[in-house]
Amino acid sequence: MLDCLGGDEGLPAMLSGAVGALQKHADLRLVLVGDESVIKPQVAAFGERVEIINTTENIPLTEHPTQAIRQRPNSSMVLGLTQLKTREDCGAFLSAGSTGALLTGGFMKIGRIEGVSRPAMCPDLPTQLDNQTFMLIDCGANMDCTPTNLVHFATMANEYKKAMGLTNPRVALLNVGAENTKGNEVVKQTYDLLTKLHAAKLLNFVGNIEADQIFKGEADIVVTDGFSGNVLLKCVEGTLKFLFKQIKQVMTQGLTAKIGALMIGGKIKKFKKAKMDTQAGSIFLGLKKPVIKMHGNAKSDTVTAAIEYAISVADLDLSDKIAAALAQVEPYLAGDEQA
Amino acid sequence: MLDCLGGDEGLPAMLSGAVGALQKHADLRLVLVGDESVIKPQVAAFGERVEIINTTENIPLTEHPTQAIRQRPNSSMVLGLTQLKTREDCGAFLSAGSTGALLTGGFMKIGRIEGVSRPAMCPDLPTQLDNQTFMLIDCGANMDCTPTNLVHFATMANEYKKAMGLTNPRVALLNVGAENTKGNEVVKQTYDLLTKLHAAKLLNFVGNIEADQIFKGEADIVVTDGFSGNVLLKCVEGTLKFLFKQIKQVMTQGLTAKIGALMIGGKIKKFKKAKMDTQAGSIFLGLKKPVIKMHGNAKSDTVTAAIEYAISVADLDLSDKIAAALAQVEPYLAGDEQA
After folding, report:
1. CA distances from B265 to A48, A304, B81, B237, B278 (A)
2. Can you give the pLDDT at residue A339?
3. What letter would DSSP give residue B280?
4. CB within 8 Å: A240 and B238
5. Pick the residue with more confidence: A295 or B33?
6. Contacts of A250 (CB under 8 A, 6+ apart)
7. How does pLDDT run across A55-78, given as a tens digit for each residue?
8. A210-224, pLDDT tens digit by residue?
9. Is there a contact between A223 and A137 (Cβ–Cβ < 8 Å)?
10. Rounded mean pLDDT of A245-262?
11. pLDDT tens digits, A126-185
């Protein structure tokens, strides 16, 4: 199911991305939520493979998430999430709309998997190794976290990575140093809990990881609270933008540099695309059904890729797997303050 | 006063950096802490301008800071800090040794300025604007911070920037969004306190800043706790390294790219040097006398630059200015949990 109204590029990008996915995957059926009068003529060729839920109401990015979800029952996001919850023929919901509203809406309309204290935002980020990414969990959904929350994040990401085919995913804890004495109180307690889970063979905890080591490909999952994770994620974005801007400036100073820049500019662009667009969509872990956030500026081909990603996660049975894993972890958390 | 034994490059780099500073500044007097038998012949030409405190003991990077300071009274760092405290003719202490030991040593041997709850690490970082940097405070000294701690950081950095000649420094709070409802509990309370201080004209609070905005040059001071600050600082380093590595790879694939790379490589190196080495030394704010950390891999010219930085801060009267500012701020913090 696709929210056709969210995102900076609006309906045309969503629709063209959807058409791309329908063309590539002959067995794909899509529910498109948006303006029927615009959508219908564009997807007529796909017949019964496409269903349309008609609405023209979109949640503005500036609106407070909880208010938006409560006060806009006819928005594309709320209509989509509400239907996703009950419809067995719907495997996932995708939106490029407000991240906060999507998370809040997922929480309120779909609900948490049993045992999950807090759902989390967890994009995959690139590493310097080819075809290897790592999942950063949480990166903005939960500002104040307890050790229990962080252990839940680790467990959810672990089940996700295993379901995606990774054997024994390496779980690391974001920290300011390698030693177990490092970090704030929450992180130190989390370190001890993850060490216990490692000893019990419930996950593969590889220890602390510092923020300058995350791109080396030595961890498949990096666990942190939503505040630090958000700082980290935005810092990566900001530093990349800053650097590309500076390099561009440097490259256009003087004729030699300009010619040199022409000779390698294409390659750098290609690299940017390959490394920075590794992930078309980012899943919220902890909800009963997959809710996938697309980047606000997602264009047609990114939307197609995100739909393909949704197809791949819809059948993973994540909900049951995460519930089972959390039940196993629970005894080790006894005594820790619950969220 | 210069710790000649700390740092990856050891005594030769420190010594040659010191000689460089002595040559450039005819009125500079230096106390060098290190192996007299090696230092003495090299600085003979400067006569009484150089004093040597003889020791061959250095604090290993791997040693626990508090233990190291307690158990190595004859190390170059402890000898230097102890003398700095009492000697009126010494304006600052510089070291490229263990950051943790230097901070702990500063705290234990020099002591805090009156009213300071916690000293902080606060490097200046580059922005995309020429000749403009911002101070990130704290970035690793204090893991668990109260709103009071954060307000103290803001106040100390504000006094420092003003003393360095900046009019009305713009103070921003690191957060995950622009609105005052964003962030964890500590950050939200800090936002309210800084807003009050702004209304009282005690500092110029410009609001929240997100991690992807820090390079835009819209803030002179970015306030955060030591955990998030450390994550941010290391993330910048890690992302830059990651990107330069990838770009290097891209540039050496194929002949055209290689030639192009040759044509602009020098400019990129120059940019890296100009932007990334903006600061030779980083001050710890909150100690009674300036203690300056040099990068572990500081080489001769960086050491010279750091000594010149030390000269510039030694006469700022920071201690009195910070104490006076904190006394003004204190009434606004009433009721907030003290650190």
Report:
1. 57, 37, 42, 20, 20
2. 47
3. S
4. no
5. B33
6. A257, B264, B267, B268, B270, B271
7. 999 999 889 999 999 999 999 999
8. 999 999 999 999 999
9. yes
10. 68
11. 888 888 999 999 999 999 999 999 999 999 999 999 999 999 999 999 999 988 889 999
Q: Decide if A144 and B185 are in contact by the 8 Å CB cutoff.
A: yes
Only one residue has tokens 């196993």, namely A328
As for the ipTM of the complex, it is 0.88
Q: Residue A302 is encoded by which pair of tokens?
A: 């990114």
Length of chain B: 339
Chain A residues touching B295 at Cβ < 8 A: none
- Interface probe for B, chosen from A215, A239, A276 (most Cβ of B below 10 Å), is A239
Helix H, strand E, coil C: the string for chain A is CEECCCCCCHHHHHHHHHHHHHHHCCCCCEEEEECHHHHHHHHHHHHHHEEEEECCECCCCCCCHHHHHHHCCCEHHHHHHHHHHHCCCCCCEEECCCHHHHHHHHHHHHCECCCCCCCEECCEEECCCCCCEEEEECCCCCCCCCHHHHHHHHHHHHHHHHHCCCCCCEEEEECCCCCCCCCCHHHHHHHHHHHHHHHCCCCEEEEEECCCCHHHCCCCEEECCHHHHHHHHHHHHHHHHHHHHHHHHHHCCCHHHHHHHHHHHHHHHHHHHHHHCCCCEEEEECECCCEEEECCCCCHHHHHHHHHHHHHHHCCCHHHHHHHHHHHHHHHHCCCCCC
| Closest CA–CA distance from residue A234 to any residue of chain B (Å) | 5
Q: What is the pLDDT of residue A335?
A: 66
